[in-house]
Amino acid sequence: MAGEYERDMNYVKTRITADGRDGYPVEPGRYRLVVARACPWANRAVIVRRLLGLEPVLSMGIAGPTHDQRSWRFDLDPGGRDPVLGIERLQEAFLARFPDYAKGITVPAIVDIPSGQVVTNDFPQITLDLSSEWREHHRPGAPDLYPEDLRGEIDEIGDLVFRVNNGVYKTGFARTQGAHEKAFTDLFEALDQLSDRLAGQRYLVGDTITEADVHLFPTLVRFDAVYHGHFKCNRHKITEMPVLRDYTRDLFQTPGFGDTIHFPQIKEHYYVVHRNLNPSGIVPAGPDLSDLLHPHGRDRLGGRPFGNGTPPGPPPESERVPDLV
């Protein structure tokens, strides 16, 4: 349909693996995960790194919430440079490997520290590889986020989850009325299906947190603060959909999820960067997000958040986010 938003899914496919078959073996301290707190796709990698306890072996660079046409910038760091990579913009790591790189400079990205070159920005594969290829370096008690016996179901439900992840963008960035209405309908049909599924089970697949939950949470937690108004996804707020509201509360209050969320940076990114949607650049003062701290009642459905494992410890001091209230 004319005016539909199409996401470019053409990423750098190189993988970091235990056997190093792409030329990049898993090595503690060799790589830097570059993220932005604002980005829901990067948020997945931040959550998985936390849950698996990979902080000691995979450092994390945090870009600021705004960017221009060139790239995400390290404007939160002293001197505006990442303290490990020594660069001002993530673009520099892409150009170091691909001098003529003309595609999007996206987060999450993993950079090879010795060479300063980007290895990959393939966000769907990054989290799967953190779970599988980096297993030797997982913390004791790390959960299995992609168990072999559930992978088929996780992948299947992942298609529905992606309709939500990408659907908010298709709704917000539609360039015609028809494209907006089509995306709007598809988005809320997918949310309704997920709500029906979650009405009778605590997590999306099985009785523990998996990749499926990691994928859905970043969109749901940003929904009321950004997507409902800024992207015109306004049939309902998540707080007006009881099952999804309580599911989001449950995950937000789970170590490794809510402690990765930086709402001021999330709001600044969307409302300042997308001047085509918000020409004034004014960041709204609301909404009140303290609902995320209310009781969720999902315990009645059973479930074991970390399976036979344990919750992660607190994040490193340098990676702490502001308290919600």
From TrEMBL:
Domain of life: Bacteria
InterPro entries: Glutathione-S-Trfase_C-like, Glutathione-S-Trfase_C_sf, Glutathione_S-Trfase, Glutathione_S-Trfase_N, GST_Omega-like_C, GST_Omega/GSH, Thioredoxin-like_sf
Annotated stretches, region: Disordered: 288-325
Residue span, GST C-terminal domain: 147-280
Pfam name, any one: GST_N_2
Compositional bias ranges of the Basic and acidic residues kind: 291-302
Protein name: Glutathione S-transferase C-terminal domain-containing protein
Organism, scientific name: Saccharopolyspora ipomoeae
